[in-house]
Every structure is written in structure tokens, then in C-alpha cells.
Amino acid sequence: MSTLVLDNGAYFAKIGYSHEKVSVIPNCQFRSKTSRLKTFTANQLDEIKDPSGLFYILPFQKGFLVNWDVQRKVWDHLFGKEMFKVDFADTNIVITEPYFNFSSIQESMNEILFEEYQFQSALRINAGSLSSHRYFHENNSELCCIVVDSGFSSTHIVPYCRGRKMKEGICRITVGGKLLTNHLKEIISYRQLHVMDETYVINQVKEDVCYVSQDFCKDMEIAQLKGEDNTVMREYVLPDFSSIKKGFCKPREEMNFTGKYKTGDQILRLTNERFAVPEMLFHPSDIGIQEMGIPEALVNSINNMPEEMQPHFYKNIVLTGGNTLFPGYRDRVYKEVRALAPVEYEVSVVLPQNPICYPWEGGKLLAENPDFEEMVVTREDYEENGHYVCEEKFDV
């Protein structure tokens, strides 16, 4: 019997059979400016010739799955003929869900997986639990780890001990990739060019040019300098989707420091936005969100743990999620946690090679675990006992 592992993120779904490779696919639908009536689903995004003014229809809001119509269409597409050709009667599914998920959402998910799709068996689990499973598999001498999962909607910090999550240490920061992109859209619209409708393009800009500053004040001083002394400034050529299909950063030697451009060139000049936007992960209060940044929340979470376990958490900090891909992210987390942690404790921060697919890899390992059959709820079980059996079995 095959097992399908689906890390059902708020922006990307990471999906694949446990014996195959993972596919990373947008977990949403799109409407384009040019063909308003047609809706594109998941990886059909590639078919849109002009993604300017692209409108997103997301199944998730604030980190929770609320739009089942959209989610069903995405799943129909993923499980259907052109993607994974799922034979439901002969397939188990491992699927992720958010921490502290609402029971009404859990019940709807059970119903859809067992009654509509009729999977043979299912396991609902948090993405962080899969990440910890992968980490303990690779570092089997370790007893504890703390997972920082910084994704699209929010950032979660969750301590694990011997594979069990410690609920009293879970922290949620309501800053994720979506907020960063929206903030960058606002800054650019205010300073240079109206881009409030260009989520797709500005998300690309964010991924291409933003980085995490190691010394915010020093970078801020450099960003105010004129001409070539301003080493922070970058020029970003926006796509026009006819001759330029994808935006790109100009090489430093080709940059124009006079500020005068040829007509027709659509160029963004980015200075302090490059590091001020990711800074919100470390100081949410910069934009009025009264919450701790990631390093403080990490230390706070570890301080809620029994004292004898604390040194083990400090030396096993695991970073996952898309926001960890900002250059300088890992170094900044290490630097700030090191400054806040007791001197005698060793601090180690691990950034996996592929932090986006790390939980999926954990799900793949879990599916090969000899105890896997004990963890799942079978369709028979569900038909006999209903939601109650899922509540009992899944620790989410």
C-alpha cells in the first residue's frame, strides 16, 4: 500500500508519495487580469502568460483552513489524473495541519479525507512534528530540539522532547511571508510606483533582493549615502511579460547612480527596504505588532521548559519554512539567541539544506516507520467510531 505525504501549507503544498520525490505546488487558485473568467489552480500558474495583477484565492486565512471550496479544487487537481493519479482505496495519507487547530476544521478534514476521497487510512499531524521526527532521525543521540517554522501566515516556535511536543512552550508570532510581501508593496507604492495589485511580482522582488541585516543601524547609515558609497542600493528591473518574463537585479557595475533612466525601463530602486522588511521577523513592534521577535520568543519558549532540559534545546534549534531562505537569517538568529542565552550553555542553530521541504522529508521517514500502522486511523475505524477516534489518536 502506498503512502501519500502532503504538507498542506498556506502558500505551498509539498506533496509526493513516500517512495518518490517531493513536488512543491502553490496551494491556491489564481485569476489573471487578462482572463478574468478563467480560474487557474495550483501549478496551472505556469500557463498564465501575463501574471501582472494576478489575483490569489487562498484556502487559508490567518493560518487556518477556512475556504474548503478552494481547498477541494486544489486537492482534486493534486490527486487527479494529471498529477498523482491517487488510487484512494489503496493509499494512506499523512497530512499536516496547524497547531491548536479548531475542532470544526479537523472534523471537516476527517469527513473529506474519509467520506469524499475515501483514503484507506489517514494521519493528521503538525509540520513541526514531522520536522522533529526528521531531526531526531539524523541526530539520534539528541533528546530535545526546538523547531522554528516561519511560513506564509505566521511563525511558530515549538519545543520537542523525545519526539513529543511540549505544549507549554509553543509560541506563535503573527508575522509570516504574506505580511512581509504586503509591507514591501506598501513601501514601494508610497515611495516609487503603485504596486498594490502586484502581489506576484513583488513577492518575487522580496525573494530576490531582501536580506536579514546583522547590524541594522550600520546598514541604515549606509542606505542613506549618495552614489556609489551606498552599497545597499540595488536596481531591480521589473518584468513586462513580453520581452522580460521574470524580474531581475541589475549587476552592480551596470547600475545607474544618476537617477535618470531611459523611458520604458521599469526599474525599482531599493535601499533600506531590502533589510527593513525582513527585520519585522525580529522586531514586529516596528510596524505596531506588539509581539516578541523570533530570538526573544525562542528564549522565552525555552525558559518555559524544565531547567535541566534547557541546555539541550539551546543546542538543537532547527529552522524551517520559506522565510529562513533570506540571506543572513540563520546568522542573525544565532547571534541574538547567543546574546540572550546563559553564558554556560552551548547554542547551535541548524538551517537544513531545503528548509521548505524539511517537514515533508520527516513525513516520508514516518511513513517508513514500523510503528506507522499504529499511528493512523483507518477508514473502517472512522466509519465505526466517527471523529472521536481521530481526536483520540492524533496529538495535534
From TrEMBL:
Isomerase is among the record's keywords: no
Keywords from the named record: Cytoplasm, Cytoskeleton, Nucleus
SMART domains documented for this protein: ACTIN
Keyword Nucleus: yes
GO cellular component, one term: cytoskeleton
Protein name: Actin-related protein 6
Family of the protein in this entry: Belongs to the actin family. ARP6 subfamily.
Localization per Swiss-Prot or TrEMBL: Cytoplasm, Cytoskeleton; Nucleus
